[in-house]
Amino acid sequence: MKFSTAISLLSTITVISAFSPGVNNYNVRLPITSLDAKRVSFKEDSRKALVRGINQVANAVKVTLGPKGRNVVLERNYGAPEIVNDGVTIAREISLRDPEENVGARLIQEVASKSDSKAGDGTTTSTIMTQAIVNGGMRAVTAGTNPVALNTGIRKAARMIAEEIKSIAKPVEGTADLKNVATIASGSVDMGRIIAQAFEKVGENGSTVIEESQTLFDEIEFTEGLTIDRGYVSPYLVKDQERQIAELISPRILVTDAKIDNVNEIVPLLEQLVKSKEPIFIVAEDVTGEALSALVVNKMRGVLDVAAIKAPGFGMRRKEYLQDIAIATGATYVAEEVGITLDSVTLDMLGTAERIVCAKESSTIVTDGKQEEAIAARIAQIRREAEAADTDFDREKATERIAALGGGIARIKVGAATETELKDKKLRYEDALNSVDSARELGIVPGGGATLAYLQKTMEDKILDAMNNEDERIGAGILIKSLSAPCMQIAENAGIEGAVVLSKVQAISLEQGFGHGWDAGKMEYCNLFERGVIDPAKVTINAIENSASVAGLVLTTECLVTEIPVEMTEAQKQALFDAQGMGAGMGAGIGGM
User: Fold this and answer.
1) CA–CA distance, 404 with 225 (Å, rounded to integer)
2) Distance CA 222, CA 220 (A)
3) Which of 76, 198, 289, 467 is most buried per CB count within 10 Å?
4) DSSP-assigned states of every residue in 412-426
């Protein structure tokens, strides 16, 4: 490999340290490495290197597109290789030897990752479109087109197409549409059926999670009501010895962030409950000491039906969970910070529920439906918090809280014969779940690349007329031309000439109306809505916007700065390791003396 600049050399200095008389001096060699030199490429050279990197990633990813798409095998340093069909997973694995080409690979990985984080699917489509726009744009820039105006034209055209997709998308109607979306995204009818079943059961606010199963088959489990990952504080509170659960029917609910250890604080409340003969469920920071003893004794004597659990979560999140429980049950949140103490609690401050099942490690509250308005308002508030959250972890926790309040949780347990198959199935399920969420948000459009092929024909004149100059029109034309890439790639992966399928799809959609196209699974032209070959509009929009964004920036690149890799033999690596180890060890020794 030729280097355009010199590589910096590793240099060492000798530190001589004198200690007390009679003690030998130590010569310590500490390695000091100067900053690595950088390679700088300009104009055509920089853009060509980026395009080479983009093409290598895109060519690896695009073989997976469509129902007849192939798989890609990913080597693993530890464990079995993975066989995957997921675009973003493949893109993330690719790292190229040439630093300049690797920058191009990183850029297209960013496109795939953005599509994955925003819509959860469509990563392969956005990668293919980025490749098409970049290659078309490179020819235009080489021919003398202004790159900045080209980029402006690409972005303007992308915005217009995105708006048009929003306007022509159909809203999701029932679980049949959700099943079709999930089937297309996962490539499996069985997976589509299971996901549709999960969404039908948990409703709009519910949550669906993917877990591993120890069996060979996929299963689905439902958890209804507000589920708390805390069990009873004492096994003596168990009512059903055979099932080891405490079940309360129409109980009153006390929600507090206080630690209950003094029985005198809750005696006034317990006396009122004994008179009304109502069961009580206590959620507190902890229930210990004489307070717990009093509850257990009264439970065992049959004086009072009671169950108690520790509050879920930690820190600020604990308060949020407690407030969720209070709102869902109509209870008053008892805390010193809101000016309410335990000894002042009355019956009207207690919440209600239809049924509560308290097990060793979890509790489920089935609400009675009296607090629907308050729950809806709380869910809206948590959604706003999720949108403003800084980390994925906070967003996940907010989603869990919404699911617990709203409709329950469906757990899809994925089974497979081998670890490799299990990982592939989990990725497919995640793609399908994200696609269903996107479809519910912005609606659905015909799949198989038919929507973009249709817009290529119907929107061309309108888009070109909206441009300000010839260079912008060339940019818009490049984006319009790239709209055919997904449809052609699906056809080529199915073993059919892409250009032939594209022209037929465009002709049939113009003749018979929007929604007609080519079903690659059954290799025939039909009404894609009726056939169930549909995509979420959000996925298609994100593919266009993300590909236009990164491709436009690549075309405006005039200079590329990369590090020059330092090639070291095994002997040099070992010598450097030994020098660094010695320096670190002696440094610690000197400091200790």
Assistant:
1) 7
2) 7
3) 198
4) EEE--SSHHHHHHHH
